[in-house]
Structures are given as C-alpha cells and as structure tokens.
Amino acid sequence: MYTLDPDHAMAELLVTARSVWTGIPGQRPFAPGAVAIEGTKVVAVGPLAEVERQLAFSRLYRRVQLDDLYLMPGLLNTHVHLTMNAGDDPVPDYLSRDDLALLLRAVGNARTMLLSGATTVRDCGSRGYGLVLLRDPAVQAQHTLPEVLVSGPPITPTGGHLHWMGGEADGVEGVRAAVRQRAKAGVDAVKIMATGGQMTPGTRPEAPAYRLAELRSVVTEAHRLGLRAVAHCLCAEGVVDAVRCGVDCVEHAVFFTRDREGRLVREYDSTAARILADAGTYVTPCLSAGYHRLDAVRGCTDLGADDRFRLEQEEKMLDCFTKLIRLGVQPVIGTDAGVTLTPFDETYLELVLMSRAGLGTEEVLLAATYHAAGALGLRGRKGEIRAGADADIIGCVADPCAGVEALADVVWVMRRGEIVVDRRKKAVDQP
Question: Coiled-coil stretches, from where to where (predicted)?
C-alpha cells in the first residue's frame, strides 16, 4: 500500500487504479487504468498495460498503487461564497466580521472543499478583493488550497441584492467603471445581479434589477478585458436579458413569480427556457443551495401548510431543471456553498440532485468536470485527465460512473501533482 512521502510529493509518478475515467466526453473508463504525472501535469493516461509500455524506456517513475480506487478528474465547483459561514442565518454573522476574519474563514472553507474533492472553485461574491491572495502559490502551498477563482463584490444596483458586499453601481457608465475596478483588482470573472435575491430584503427576485443597457455594458466590458461574465437570475425576464447580453453563465436560472398571497413561487417559463437553450449559455442551477433547510420535514406526512408549500417548491425546482435539460441546456456544478445551511464539503450533493432530476450519470459527471472547466474558461487545463492537463485527480472507493453518490466518499485527492489526501490507510488498518 502507498504511503505519502512529503519529500517526493511533486516527483514523477505512475498512478495505477482499478479504473480511470478521464472526463473526456464519450471516452469509457480505463480499467485497470494508469496516469503518468511529471511535476504538475499529466503526461500520459490510458489502460495500465499501454501506459507501462509507453514509459518502458523513460526515466523511472515512482509507482502509486491505488488498485482499490476509481479515479476521475477533480471536481470543479463554479459557484461558492467562501467568506460566508453556511449557518442558519449567515448574513448577520457576515456583517459582524472584519475583512481579515473573512479572509481567514475563506482559507478554511477553501481547504475544506479541496479535502472533499473540489480541486477548483470559483467564489461568486465576497466583500472586497482579499480572496485574490488565495491564488498566490505560496499561500496555496502553505494552506493546502484548491485553485481559487475570484469575482469580487457582485455588481448590484444601489440597495440591490448583496449590496452589503460593497458592489453597488448604477447606470451604463457606473457599471462599466465597476467592471474596470474589478479587472484592476485582478479578478477572474465579473458577477452581476440581474435580479433581486432572497437573502436581501427589499429587493425583488421576480423582477430585473438592471436595465438592458446596463447589463450589456457589464458583459461587453468584461469580455473586452478578458473576463468571464456571470449573472444571478431569478426571473424569466432576467434570464432572457442576461442571455441576450451574452453572459457566459446564468446562475440559478429560476423563473420566480408571486402568487396571490405574495409568496415567491417557482414556475416554468417555456419561452425563456427555449431562448436559454438556443443560446447555448451555461447554467449553474445551484439545486443544493439551502437543501438542508428541509431536512426535518422531508419524508413526513403530517405537515403544516408552510412546510407542504416549501416541499412543493423544491419539487418544482427539480421539475424545472428536468425540463431545461430536456431542451438541451448545459448545466455546470455550483452549490452556492456558504449561504444558509449549504456546507463546503458537499459538492457531491449537487450531482446527486441533478441525477435525481433525470440527468444521466455521465452527463452529471461532465457537468462537474469537462463542462465546468468550459464555463470557467479552463478547458484543456482542468476538468480532464489528459496529457497536458493539470494533475487534479480524485479517488473513490465506489465507482462514480455507476452512481454519483460515490462522490460522497472521496478518499484520495491530488492537486496539481501533489497528493493532499490519502484516507485509505486508516480504513485499511482498522481491524
């Protein structure tokens, strides 16, 4: 059995496994499989015998035998909030913390994500630009972090959703200047609140937050500066506006309206859905956001009207997602970790819910790897095990290709050629 040797963490490695799923669409797992790694990069992958022949006359590789594990690319979580605490009421806590406290929290949350199998994460909203520090190689090495992409404070109208993160901007020129400020600070993406949100009282999730010209100004300027543009969208008009302005990814893609009692209700808007599908825009549904709020009532039969309503809305959420994927909308994985009761070590839950809603197992895995890399602008470097890609690899005891629930138990993690998790020894040594 392999024992982690810190002095050789970045050496040339030949990793062998029961199975290797590469994350390349249409490619079946190699069983048994092998991955050859030099430094931070994959140099070869394939059936074990073939890779061994390939390396026969090469320099000596240190063999890492994971013959009991199923390997696949590390997960990419495209939507998290690293500075939030995932508690039952995270906003008051957030507002009470200074920037240093939030940065230290983000370090811990990012590390939690890596140790659970998410090797690349994108923060989709935080106060200030301190998280840019988490991309520093020295910081990553010291704290064992995933690759972190940053969007800074979401651009939002005065008093708009998450305005307390400091991203208020109004008017075509105002939002354009906000994009430039973020580029100056070194972000990877720009997030705009195309609608109100549920965590900010006084905003309207069921209505657009910006005029079309303002939204277009953000997207155009972001793209001019080489940045991805993502839009928080909770109503049909907001989704359509974002798509028509050319955003790279729609976050949530919900079609909220209000019922006669003034409650937010989920509906399916076939026109907006068709526009979204035809555009080919990525969608991050965040199905698992707040999932644990209903843990106490799921499966119960004797429920009050409020609990029945909330469970009905959850089913409507999954039904709307099912309809979107049937139209051909391309989902990617993002959990909204950090918001109410949405922990940082449950990226797998998003995959489970997508599967429950009818997305096939391979497509769910691709949403967490290959397609997520595309949404982040990292295709070719992340989300695949292929020659030239970063050696971001995870291992499970069960086969994820047979059921994504296997990802609830990631026992081995490699991040850019460095083994950062190996929980097999403890399991094997137990009597």
Answer: none
**What CATH topology corresponds to 75-376?**
TIM Barrel (3.20.20)
The crossing angle, in degrees rounded to 10, of helices 212-224 and 236-244 is: 40
Provide the CATH number for the domain formed by 6-74+384-429 in this structure. Answer: 2.30.40.10
Q: How far apart are CA 141 and CA 76, in angstroms?
A: 19
Q: Are 340 and 84 in contact (CB under 8 A)?
A: no
Where do you find CATH 3.20.20.140 in the chain?
A: 75-376
pTM score of the predicted model = 0.95
Q: What token pair was written down for 168?
A: 């208020």
For residue 68, give the 3-state DSSP assignment. Answer: strand
Dump strand ranges (E) for 159-313: 189-193, 228-233, 249-252, 256-258, 264-266, 282-284
- pLDDT number for residue 425: 65
Read off the DSSP letter of residue 102: H
DSSP H or E stretch at residue 62: strand 62-73
In the chain, ranges of CATH 2.30.40.10 domains: 6-74+384-429
pLDDT digits (tens, 9 = 90+) for 5-25: 344 344 599 999 999 999 999
- 134-148 residue pLDDT tens: 999 899 889 999 999
